[in-house]
Design goal:
Two copies of one chain form a homodimer. Chain A is an alpha/beta fold. Chain A has two domains: 3-117 and 291-308, Nucleotidyltransferase, domain 5; 131-287, Nucleotidyltransferase, domain 5, CATH 3.30.420.40. The first copy, chain A, is built from ten helices and twelve strands. In chain A, the strands form three sheets. The first copy, chain A, has a five-stranded mixed β-sheet, with helices on both faces. In chain A, strand 5 and strand 6 (80-82) form a beta hairpin. In chain A, helix 5 (188-197) runs antiparallel to helix 7 (220-244) and helix 7 (220-244) packs across helix 8 (259-273). The longest helix of chain A has 25 residues, at 220-244. The first copy, chain A, is globular and about 55 Å long. Chain A starts with a strand and ends with a helix. Chain A binds chain B through residues 83, 131, 143, 145, 147, 152-162, 164-169, 176-179, 235, 238-240, 242-247, 272-276, 278-280, and chain B through 83, 131, 143, 145, 147, 152-162, 164-169, 176-179, 235, 238-240, 242-247, 272-276, 278-280.
Chain lengths: 310, 310
């Protein structure tokens, strides 16, 4: 092994970090709780300790740097997080530069969904293509666009906010100010809230998995929720396919096990709404790396940055 | 002047060709009717004659090659047109190779909306940015996506089919198989057909300009048509802005003079549906090159291809 990097997945409650080699093999992994209540300095200290621990264990190979995936927008040029509900205490702080100073090593910040898309592109479901779109179905819906094997950032780093594509012009209101955003009709949260709206179950706070189990058991309301979710995904995917003509569109996240319940409606919409889909070999598939995608993508960032240097 | 190229805009009824220098100055221009009824060989012969005529006139500078903008999809690798309603007689024919053989010079084919977007990016409304999206409002709505100063093609060359973004999930049926496509709610044709549907005027076959004049004269139905068109454009633009986070989105085509009648509704939708728009310096503007944009973009293609050669 000639080189290794350290990838970090920094969430609102947990952080995970892994030493990864150039072939995408995880050599060591640690995790810690984020404890935002202890303040910014504590969280960054914890993060830096995890990275230092991994570095001290790694005796072989050259250290390429650190990649960190975080929820929220990244002002890419500045290495600053803005608009992260889960990491509000990092808002506007020069996070990248602070971590670089503490570590004495190069650090790259990336949006978590972008990092996951890059991970899938590197060694996951998209390893055989150069261009793909990933939708991460969770509390919200994140998006990552990979073009020529790189994250598309847009000018401020806000490209790929695909959870906020309008799929129902007069649909459910969204915290972003819009109504009918994809994530208000097809996220895990959309599934559980619609289930409450429809009184699908008497259980308090049902999870998307609970609704899935009801669908499997034959509950028609639960099945209808997944059909509706599939339709919303289909409208968004057709738009993305007509826009990009990429070979691959990936879905990941908690609701994936319910694929057989939402995918038929999703594919019906895609076929109807995209002649590009009907006339090309466009694949819509499950992502492969699960919850590790962001960690792999983050770890790949320092390797990719190295290729760019003259 | 060190170099020149020849750009061609090949339409269903007319073709225009121009000699253009590296600064985007038109040195000479010719046009001819396309006469599809005389057959493929005749049309290609006419096209090649126009190009030869321009070449023979040009005594100074090195000839960089020919770029041709055509309606329809281009299988970019093969230089073949598919799915062009206006040039059905060229369907599936190895057009690029045939013209190259007749001319003995390099030829690049490009979709007409992509060529127009590239023209605006080169010396038009987008000369100051690297990334933009252009929507051409005509019989249908074409789209061109410029990223890092280049056309985004997607795998088969079908990227940028932005007229077929779904903006009204249960809207007007489209020839593409979808319902509620942007072009069925915001093209010049959508304006005139909606006017007929609403019995805005007794004139047979009103044009978009006629409806515009009625709006200016205070006709509330005509004004409502442009508001509705603006809303449809706004939904599509918000989706594009959330997807790309590009600095610039351009509109061109016949309905542009009605800007004051459709833009307010369009901007209201964009503001509501895109927090990226509200939080960044994103511009939505009129394109500058009018009907010449495609000609400029086509002429730029040989210059751009030259930069790629090692």
């Amino acid at each position: 092994m000639t080189q290794y990097s350290i990838g970090v997945d920094l969430g609102g409650t947990n952080l995970r970090a892994a030493t990864v080699d150039q072939d995408g093999k995880i050599l060591a992994q640690v995790s810690a709780s984020t404890s935002p209540e202890k303040g910014r300095d504590h969280v960054i200290g914890e993060l830096v300790d995890c990275i230092q621990e991994l570095r001290s264990k790694q005796t072989e190979g050259r250290f390429a740097g650190v990649g960190i995936g975080v929820p929220g927008f990244i002002l890419i040029d500045k290495g600053i997080i803005v608009g992260s509900n889960n990491l509000a205490f990092l808002e506007g702080f020069a996070l990248r530069d602070d971590i670089e100073r503490r570590l004495g090593a190069p650090v790259i910040l990336e949006n978590d969904a972008n990092a996951a898309a890059l991970g899938e592109s590197w060694i996951g479901a998209g390893a055989d293509v150069d261009d793909l779109v990933l939708l991460t179905l969770g509390t919200g819906i994140g998006g990552g666009i990979i073009y020529n094997n790189r994250v598309m950032h847009g000018r401020e780093g806000m490209a790929g906010e695909l959870g906020h594509i309008t799929v129902v012009p007069n649909g459910n209101p969204c915290g972003c100010g819009n109504v009918g955003c994809l994530e208000k009709h097809a996220s895990a949260t959309a599934i559980t809230c619609t289930a409450e709206l429809m009184k699908v179950t008497n259980h308090p706070n049902p999870t998307a998995e609970d609704i899935y189990k009801l669908a499997v058991a034959g509950d028609w309301k639960a099945q209808q929720i997944f059909r509706s979710m599939g339709e919303a995904l289909g409208v968004a995917l057709a738009t993305l396919i007509n826009t990009f003509n990429f070979p691959l569109y990936l879905l990941s996240g908690g609701p994936l096990p319910a694929w057989d319940y939402f995918a038929p409606a999703m594919m019906d919409e895609v076929k109807r709404r995209s002649f590009t889909f009907r006339n090309t070999k466009t694949r819509i598939e499950k992502a492969k790396l699960g919850g590790q995608a962001g960690l792999y993508g983050a770890a790949y960032l320092p390797f990719q940055a190295q290729k760019d240097r003259p």
